[in-house]
Structure prediction request, 353 residues.
Amino acid sequence: MVRTASESTSAGPTLAVVARAAGVSVPTASKVVNGREDVAPETRRRVAEALDRLGYVRRPRFDTARAPRLVDLVVHSLESSWSGAVLHGVEEAAYDAGLEVVVSAGLNRPRSGSPEQPRPEGGGLDRLVIRGTSGILFNLAELTAAQYAWLARHRIPFVLIDPAVEPPPGVVSVGATNWQGGVTATEHLLGLGHERIAVVAGRRRRQCSGARVAGYRSALAAAGVRHRPEYVRHAGFDRATARRRMRELLDLPVPPTSVFVCSDAMALGVYEALAERGLTVPRDMSVVGFDDLPEARWATPALTTVRQPLSEMAATALRLLLRMMDGHRPESTRTELSTRLVRRASTAPPSLP
Prediction:
């Protein structure tokens, strides 16, 4: 079928084609494309489906030839110092490159007041295209297959910073040497004379959590120390859950003398559980964290931890994204930056026989 100029362009179908496919007027389709709220949920759903099905590319509403290039940083939340470190790295690298950065938090959450309203296939990513993004950085993202397909269809370059789960083949990501970090933390405790070493890990399906636990187990095996399955506990990367897991470890018939905690935030929960039992760090329990966030220095005693170079990871991801925006493909899809142990006051030789 031959389409007229009013039906399509070299960039894809026009809004008139989308409106006809959805059974609405062009002004109504335009409202959906531009994020207007005065559209019925069912109408919005039909238009969103037509947009994705036909491959309509939302065009920016400004002169991109004159405007600075815009990149988006999508984070799960802005309430943690973890996200603050990532934002700092992106901001510095973007300034050096002459880029503008827009930060979005909780992109996939439903809009308040309309929890039943179906989300478009892109899961909110269409808003980024509308404002003319040149590329996207996703921090701790767990994108759906539909969102990956949507990004590919719209040819938007993107990079994942510390992805929550292993991304599909070909997706570019930046992370840290999590396995080596687990080895380093465990070797430090072994070197102090500990053999009853527990680990409080994050969620089981999180990529970084699995790698850190694997490093812990590898270090024990290399030292000839028996692995105790009951010493491995999984939490949710939050203080409250880590506090409960530490209580469980203390209630074991043979409790550990030290614990490797897979995030600094969880380590603070471990401190709280120990304080509840009248135990002190490091006399009664040595504790090693992971991340080296500001909280690690502020804790009492200051927390020995594995430093994850969050700001450097974010800056590296931005530089990779910039090359992709210029049409270059990275030689490797996975970049890992080194971790290292930062020794403070929370570890000591065991006091128990």
User: Anything to note?
Assistant: The longest strand covers residues 70-75. Confidence is low (pLDDT under 50) at residues 1-11, 60-67, 109-119. The CA atoms of residues 61 and 316 lie 30 Å apart. The longest helix spans residues 81-97.
